[in-house]
């Protein structure tokens, strides 16, 4: 049998692969950053988003690929002959042993080419495959690198395989799956960095202004005359940072700061409101269909000092270092959680939308 040889078909790099790489990298970066930042700042919605995002993306990717997989399954594969150049068992302890084959594939209407595949072969049938033996293979049209050995060919193909011998294709005529290329890898890496940066920058005030000095905090600090504060407002969030000597437990500080963040946003709801000693952070609900939100102006701020005092003195944390109040509507109604951390561990209490305590969890409990 005479076989013509030639160069393998050129690999085609689709812009879709680059876009898919960027999107996948963005989802991974956003998810990882959301999990880490959500755990650090104790933002439950952000943490849940980080956990759910890759699951949703994977499901969407699977559903989007169903039509393509159905089309591929409907295509009749090409059946041709191939010669085994070399084979090697690469492991496995079951009855089917993974075997790496190097084949010369000889299409009837094109040049022969080389391809390397790995396929499971039953131990009983392993002796039927030997170098320079001819086998029947199949591959999808247009994808000559997806070769699979037909273990039980029809009698006609068995007869053809037993009656022919042919020369090896040159090593230069090797076919492999198209490489994704550097563009796809760069796009994925850039998407990962961009997704992580969006999350970190959105919560930069909460992350980098946390009071973690280790010094004990009093539940209510005396008011100190000072006007230094920093306000940062974006379409998605807003933060107010007080200067040294001031506390959001001082009378009127929270009302003033909330007024700064909600000015011109009369109908804008918030996903979460987080209050620390000198930091107020509000994450606003997105536009369009919205999850349950809360009005940041309607929280019982006058109850916050008493809640913090109870959390820092009555929950077994003898030397409190940090405290935080988180308000959200994950359960359908406004809920407050006051957490305090010290050398004894972390304790917290839960309160309703009017500031009435409904649950207490002591340090170590």
Main pleated-sheet profile:
8 strands, antiparallel
| Helical content class | 25-40%
Shape: elongated
Radius of gyration: 32 Å
The first-to-last residue Cα distance is 81 Å
Spell the H/E element sequence.
HHEEEEEHHHEEHEEHEEEE
Q: Could you give the topology of this structure?
A:
Blueprint: H1 15-40, H2 44-74, E1 78-89, E2 96-106, E3 113-122, E4 134-139, E5 148-149, H3 155-163, H4 181-202, H5 204-208, E6 229-233, E7 237-242, H6 253-262, E8 270-275, E9 279-284, H7 304-313, E10 320-328, E11 335-342, E12 345-352, E13 357-361
Antiparallel strand pairs: 1-2, 1-4, 2-3, 4-5, 6-7, 7-9, 8-9, 8-10, 10-11, 11-12, 12-13
Describe the structure.
With 365 residues, this protein is α+β, with helices and mostly antiparallel strands. Helix content is 31%, strand content 26%. The chain has seven helices and 13 strands. The protein has helices at 15-40, 44-74, 155-163, 181-202, 204-208, 253-262, 304-313; strands at 78-89, 96-106, 113-122, 134-139, 148-149, 229-233, 237-242, 270-275, 279-284, 320-328, 335-342, 345-352, 357-361. The strands form two sheets. Strands 6-7-9-8-10-11-12-13 form an eight-stranded antiparallel sheet, covered by helices on one side. The chain has a five-stranded antiparallel sheet with strand order 3-2-1-4-5. A hairpin with a 4-residue loop joins strand 12 and strand 13 (357-361). Helix 1 (15-40) runs parallel beside helix 4 (181-202). The longest helix has 31 residues, at 44-74. The protein is elongated and about 95 Å long. The model is unreliable at 1-12 and 211-226 (pLDDT under 50).
């Amino acid at each position: 049998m005479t076989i013509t040889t030639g160069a393998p078909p050129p690999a085609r790099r689709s812009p879709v692969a680059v876009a898919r790489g960027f999107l996948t990298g963005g989802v991974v970066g956003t998810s990882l950053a959301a999990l880490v930042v959500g755990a650090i700042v104790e933002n439950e919605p952000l943490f849940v988003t980080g956990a759910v995002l890759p699951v949703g993306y994977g499901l969407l990717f699977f559903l989007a690929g169903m039509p393509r997989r159905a089309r591929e399954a409907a295509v009749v594969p090409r059946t041709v002959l191939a010669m085994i150049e070399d084979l090697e068992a690469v492991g496995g302890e079951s009855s089917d042993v993974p075997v790496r084959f190097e084949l010369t594939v000889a299409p009837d209407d094109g040049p022969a080419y080389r391809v390397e595949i790995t396929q499971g072969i039953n131990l009983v049938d392993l002796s039927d495959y030997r170098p320079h033996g001819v086998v029947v293979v199949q591959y999808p049209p247009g994808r000559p690198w997806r070769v699979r050995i037909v273990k039980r060919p029809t009698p006609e193909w068995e007869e053809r395989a037993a009656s022919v011998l042919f020369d090896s294709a040159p090593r230069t005529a090797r076919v492999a799956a198209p490489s994704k290329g550097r563009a796809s890898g760069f796009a994925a890496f850039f998407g990962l960095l961009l997704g992580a940066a969006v999350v970190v920058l959105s919560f930069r005030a909460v992350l980098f202004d946390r009071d973690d000095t280790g010094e004990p905090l009093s539940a209510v600090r005396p008011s100190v005359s000072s006007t230094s504060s920093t306000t940062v407002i974006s379409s998605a969030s807003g933060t107010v940072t007080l200067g040294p000597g001031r506390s959001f437990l001082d009378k009127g500080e929270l009302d003033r700061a909330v007024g700064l963040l909600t000015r011109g946003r009369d109908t804008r709801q918030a996903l979460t409101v987080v209050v620390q000693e000198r930091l107020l952070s509000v994450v606003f609900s997105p536009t369009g269909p919205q999850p349950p939100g809360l009005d940041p102006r309607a929280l019982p701020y006058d109850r916050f000092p008493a809640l913090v005092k109870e959390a820092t003195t009555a929950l077994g944390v003898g030397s409190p270092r940090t405290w935080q109040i988180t308000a959200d509507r994950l359960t359908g109604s406004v809920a407050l959680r006051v957490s305090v951390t010290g050398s004894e561990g972390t304790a917290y209490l839960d309160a309703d939308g009017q500031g009435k305590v409904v649950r207490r969890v002591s340090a170590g409990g």
